[in-house]
Amino acid sequence: MSQTVVKRKPAANKRMKRQSKKTNRTSANTRRRASRKGKKLLRSNRINKRARGWKRGILARKAPAAPIAPTAPASSLVEQPSDGGAAPILIPLTGIIFSKDRALQLDAALRSLYLHALDISNFHMRVLYKTSSDFYESQYERLKNEYPMVQFIKEEQFKEQVIASMEPYAYVLFIVDDCMFVRDFTLQSVMNTLAAHNDLIGFSLRLGPNIRYCYTMSAEQSIPWHHIIEYGYRKFDWTSAQYEFGYPIEVSSSVYRTTNLLPHLKNLDFSNPNTLEGCMAGRAQELSEGRQFLACSEVSLAFCNPLNVVQNVYDNRAGSNKENSPQELALLFENGDRINVNKYANYIPAACHEQVDIF
Q: Cα separation of 70 and 284, whole Å?
């Protein structure tokens, strides 16, 4: 019995040794695989961290809506006072749209503005409106619901409301309700241009070398000599220009520095958009403070479609087709009709005011 045990003991030891070696090899292989897996996981985590950081960087550097130029620093949008004092902190830009009894045309103005002003959501738009009946008022109430991003202000004290609307802002965009925008642009590029050129009185969205007729004067329009500046925009001397190009301050579709206008507006007597424009245009030399240049695009960005008249202050030229009267267009609006502004995309007007079919 003892001999048998002695004979088997070495074999058992050999098996145990072989099993131990096998176990050790397995453990070593397992450790090596775990090590490789850990290194891969570490590398993966590092890569993911870098990727997340890169992604966050891209999001943090997201370009502004303006596709044609980077946003200028806020400080460059407000001119510093000459005495070295601190500049007032102003919000960049507000748009004021004047409207009366023309919900259908106002809808087209707003719709085309939000279609073509690519960065419009960055700015505060408001409509200063007036109605002559509850019927027209109800249509503006409908527009309030359709354009929640726009502030609608019922006209009460026109001059005070205009000044109050402008005061917190560095720039103001004036628009009238029969204006339509026809090609893409950015308000940021307009502000950048005005900030870069102190000799500019303003920026006209309706002018361009394509304007060869003056509708209000029923006359051919000469094109002034111009410089090509940033963004392909034009800069010309309005003081020696004719008709539309020599009419630098208007309220149909132009951008101005509020600091140039407000000190004068507070001392002027005006009570509606027509007298506001008349007061400013009549004092253009005074308001310009030596700024003899006006800027515009290489092609008009907007034009006015003078289908009808809703005021009796000035005898402005306009269409006489009864189908386009304010009353008839209001009935169309009531029935749910809307002007298809996409139809006018990239339209090139020959005049700042041009009658075109809307249906």
A: 32
Give the pairing of strands 219-220 and 213-214.
antiparallel
Alpha helices in the chain (DSSP H): 2-60, 103-116, 134-146, 158-166, 187-196, 258-265, 273-282, 284-288, 326-334
Residues 6+ apart with CB under 8 A from 12: none
Of the candidates 170, 183, 105, the one whose C-alpha atom is nearest the C-alpha of residue 359 is 105
Tally the residues of the chain.
359
Assess contact for 176 and 252: CB atoms under 8 A: yes
- Where exactly are the structural domains of the chain? 89-344
Q: Which residue has the tokens 């003078």?
A: 306
For the stretch 292-319, pLDDT in tens is 999 999 999 999 999 998 866 666 766 6
Q: Give me the residues paired with residue 296 across strands.
A: 204, 234
Name which of 105, 103, 100, 153 is nearest 125 in CA terms.
Answer: 153
SS3 at position 295: strand
Q: Which CATH superfamily is domain 89-344 in?
A: Spore Coat Polysaccharide Biosynthesis Protein SpsA; Chain A (3.90.550.10)
Query: So what's the pLDDT on residue 70?
Result: 36
pLDDT for 36: 55
Which residues does 213 contact at the CB level (< 8 Å), separation at least 6? 219, 220, 221, 350, 351
In the chain, the amino acid numbered 101 is D
CB 200 within 8 A of CB 295: yes
User: Rounded to whole angstroms, how far apart are CA atoms 107 and 341?
Assistant: 10
DSSP one-letter string for 197-247: -TTEEEEESS--TT--EETTTTEE-PPPPEEE-GGG-EEEEGGG--GGGG-
Distance separating the N- and C-terminal Cα atoms of the chain: 117
Mean pLDDT for the chain?
Answer: 83
For 225, list phi and psi in degrees, rounded to 5.
-65, 140
CA distance 295 to 208: 9
**DSSP 3-state of 172:** strand
